[in-house]
Amino acid sequence: MSQYDRKSSWLRRPAIVAAVIAGVVGVVGCTASPTTKPAVSETPGILRPSAPEGELSTTLQSQLQAALDDTMAEYDVPGAAVGVWIPGEGTWTAAAGLADIENDEPVDLDMMWPLRSVTKSYTVTLLLQLVDEGEVSLDDTIGQYVDGVTAGDEITLRELAEMSSGNADYTNDDFLAAFTADPETIFTLDQLNGFMLGTPAQFAPGTEKVYTNANTNLLGAVIEEVTGQGFAEVLDERILAPLGQNDTRYIVDAADWTEPHAVGYAPEGDSLASQPRNLSIFGPAGSMITTLDDARVWGQALATGTFLQPETQAERQDGAPLDVGPPYGMYALGIGETDGWWGHNGEGLGFTAAVFHHPDSGATVVAFMNESNLANKAHPADQMFRRVAKILTTGAEQ
């Protein structure tokens, strides 16, 4: 059987589905200038940052391309889109490999990619905007907004945002039964939250830091309750439109995912199996899609606190290492930090993503790859980000 044979037997393996939700062929890199948006905004005071002009040095481009080739080869990644932007030095973007193995479709720089858990950084930003406006407090309990949460009168919004609530996740037997019965089912936010309401807690609030999608989806419900609007509408009005992110959307129906786009894959035996396209199973914890350039813009806005008061951004960045979760040096309020780089990564249903910005240097790194859930727990997009960060740090020391 070919390494890239497509299968659908994941449907008969609930354990594999749970793992996938939680969390090389003709690899040819190409360097090009990205499609950039004008530095304009629909909201006064919010400026969409332009990409640095020109290309990075030939030597640096060669190092970055080698890192991409090595990462894809090491993890058998079918396809990737990666960008590195350094103010005063230039830009490097690369599309490599295949977006769709079966149809021999190459990756294109303009494709829309799933953000997966990078979505969490948008959701918590919306919550913190409401904090700045005095509409909510991080010390409010989730029970003030959502009924039926175990220990809801103790768990604070802060604990949800920093992953210390103790909530069980919603990816339990009931959810898996509903999903495997019909993988095309479009779940609502209320349905996703409903799967975890009343379930036993994992630990007492504030005593550990265990990363779950349920924490962020409960915050999504808070945002809807406080604003009286649907999550997608709030996101559009408060972040996407002001920042000029015309190619970024919160979608739950895969039919709204602009073609062409990559197919997601995960290892199954000796091959890679294509994964369901269902975006609704993640909710405000992971249902957004974006492009390489829009991700660049968000990476900078997130790390520099574009949408928040300075004191709120400072509070947002007060965190600690996760006990269980993705690879960060430290995780705070919907944002992670590693060696001075701030941002978020994401994984699930065949895709990994990493969006990070280094405030001291102004550099931004974005990586999208269409493979997830490797047996050794490696996160290909995050591995690419870390290798790029090392190259840039080494270069700065020379």
Task: State the low-pLDDT regions, or none.
Answer: 1-16, 24-42
Examine the coordinates and then state which fold CATH places here, giving the name of the CATH topology: Beta-lactamase
Shape: globular
Q: CATH H-level name... which superfamily?
A: DD-peptidase/beta-lactamase superfamily
Proportion of residues in β-strands:
15-25%
Question: Could you say what the CATH architecture is?
Answer: 3-Layer(aba) Sandwich
Radius of gyration: 20 Å
What this model shows, in words?
The chain has 398 residues and is of the alpha+beta class. The protein has one domain: DD-peptidase/beta-lactamase superfamily (Beta-lactamase). It contains 11 helices and 14 strands. The strands form 3 sheets. Strands 1, 2, 3, 4, 10, 11, 12, 13 and 14 form a 9-stranded antiparallel beta sheet that branches. A 3-stranded antiparallel beta sheet has the order 5-9-6. α2 runs antiparallel to α11 and α3 crosses α7. The chain is globular, with a radius of gyration of 20 Å. The termini are far apart. The N terminus is likely disordered.
